[in-house]
Amino acid sequence: MKTPKIILTRLLSTAILCLAVAISAVAQTQVIAGSKIPRLTTGQRDIILLNLTDSIAANGQLIYNEDIDCLEYWNGETKEWISLCHGTTNPAVDIPLESCNKIRVYGKYYVDSPLDNSHYIIVPVTVTKKGDYNIVAITGNGYYFQASGTFQETGTYNVRLEGMGMPGIQRRDEVTFTCNGQIIGSLCNITIDIEAHAMGYQTVCEDITVHGTYQTRTFMGPDNYVKIPVDVLNPGGAGANITSIQTDVQNGISFSLRTGLEVYGADTLILKASGSPKQEGTFRFTFTTDGSVKTTCSFTVDCFSLLGTFDEPACNCLAIYAERPFIPNGEYWLQDCVTDSESSSATRTFCDIKGGGWTLVWSYSENTARNVYGNSTSMAVPGNTYGNSINTPRNRITSSVAGDEDPLLYRIDYNDFRLNRTEWENLGTGNTTQMKVHITDDPVDMENDWALNNYAIISPRNIAENPLFSTFNNRAGVPTVGKIYGKNWRVIAGGTQGWDEVTGGGNNSRILRLYSNALWCTHWDFFNSGSSTLFEVYPNRGGANNQISMTNIDNSFGDFSQAMPNHHFGKCGGSTGDDYSFSTKTCLPTNLYPHSMRGGEGRVLQWFIR
């Protein structure tokens, strides 16, 4: 006698078989009658074939597969279901056991926080039969991951499944992978932890507004902040509603925020500024919001400076250049920060900002050299009265002179201007203060062609080499560079008596010396006593083609007793002499006259420090 268990099993098998036959019959009847096509899952579809002894008999069976949202029909000859969506077969896809540890889940997952493009799974699959696929990672907790496409070839693929939906409850979810409704990778143990309610908000970067004024060397206060309008998607649970934002540091300042979100909907976050702006200009700040929705935004802040104005004088032009590198060259206010920055009056002078922060300390025209310094008899400037070691200020403009009136009404007279000796020293940068001298056709145009081709820059390395702080007689080898008539020259550091050894021994091969005694301390003396017709220039060494031929040329930047070349600083031929034609003609200081340019003032010789 058969046991009840065996009888029950056979009855159940018979029932399933009958059900399958019935489904098949109904399906075929409906298709023939033109009625609704059966909607079956992949599992229900396969029950039909399990109970047919001849798959050819089911050839042409048509169903709608709910798992892949597509019509399929049975091909009895190839013994497979054919999809009508793309005309290809279902692929054979699986996740081999050895590939399970290569599955990667990306993103953080929170209750009631929608998934975005930061949430995805990379899953390696092995394809042994090409075809259309719809791979789904199911969690059963309100969210899933999906990717669809066609495998054109067999092989191994890393498929990216995009996250969709929103986790419903806090728990550890087990992930089940399916391909076209069939479970794959059943031996892989992949889980996702869903954390408590996550704080999340979103913002539109273009709606950010900057408030307050941002002045250099001023510490930020309560009026310096940035407003960020946000839409709070989830304020977060207790202890998880804190948002913290920190921008990068730009120009010495940054913006930050740490606060709790309380309610859903519109809100405003306030990022407060800290630090002190170091430089004038427009600076861009960047930050990334935290929480479940990440947004990276940037905004700009305009910083300004008053350094160098009447109300806020600078220590020197180099300080203005460091803080305001993009302002134009021009007249600015400076203050002696060495002696007593609180009580000393400010001085107005010219700053070469574009050239790197040079401070003008002395400026005089050819007309001044002859008719003021030389008393109408010579262009030789008396060094015992106007040398750079002498305190002879001229036409200075100070804050005490300007008083309460508009300081812009007071302009520098570049034809006859000189700061006092203390300002020469204290407006510089100490023992290594550089000095620059040039001759120019325009005293406020630092790009003037004549100035760019006729200058010298002295770069002392210590107090002993600096003419501002030490006796400077025949100083040896102070590093110096420059141009004369567009030809480069230099003093080699450590050279003999400050002369540049060009081609060998003897005075005729040395081209440069700085005089600083009672008579000669304001000019570069180009000396070639061994050869009265040749003037060597560096780096053009040797050969007639690399020499400037000038008869009896001894000085080029201002003469005291020797002959001067025509047109360098002053012209030969008296007041009616030719202004522009170049020649090697020389004349004594008594025969040099101002050029006609600039209303008869002629060219200008200027000294700068930095």
Description:
The strands form nine sheets. Strands 25, 26, 27, 28, 29, 30, 31, 32, 33 and 40 form a ten-stranded antiparallel sheet that branches. Strands 5, 6, 8, 9, 10, 11, 13 and 14 form an eight-stranded antiparallel sheet that branches. Helix content is 12%, strand content 33%. Mean pLDDT is 79; it is low at 1-33 and 495-555. The chain has eight helices and 40 strands. Strand 1 (39-40), helix 2 and strand 2 (62-65) form a beta-alpha-beta unit. Helix 1 (4-33) crosses helix 2 (42-50).
Rounded to an integer in angstroms, the radius of gyration calculated over CA atoms is 45 Å
Mean pLDDT across every amino acid position = 79
Helix and strand composition category: mainly beta
How much of the sequence lies in strands comes to 25-35%
Give the helix proportion (percent range).
10-25%
Q: Ends: how far apart?
A: 118 Å
Number of strands: 40
Number of domains: 4
- Major sheet attributes: 10 strands, antiparallel
- Described by the principal axes of the CA atoms, the overall outline is elongated
Residue runs with pLDDT of under 50 for 5 or more positions: 1-33, 495-555
Question: How many distinct helices?
Answer: 8
Short key terms for the protein model shown above:
single chain, Immunoglobulin-like, 610 residues, 33% strand, eight-stranded antiparallel β-sheet, ten-stranded antiparallel β-sheet, mainly beta
